[in-house]
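Write out the 3D structure for:
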Amino acid sequence: EINIEIVAGREASVSFDMQSFASLLHGDRVSVRRSAHQVRFLHPRGWSYYATLRRKLHWNAGVN
């Protein structure tokens, strides 16, 4: 289990799988724990999580 508590700083917000969005206030906590259920993700052959990140975040992009 992971617990995150808002203790200081500016505005904070949280999004849960892009389905819901909530603003957090000083003293709020977010707890994340492992589910008892398992899920299997299917990806096409040759799919790479890191290649997707590189493409979307423009990592290793040349400077023009």
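The CA atoms of residues 25 and 60 lie 37 Å apart.
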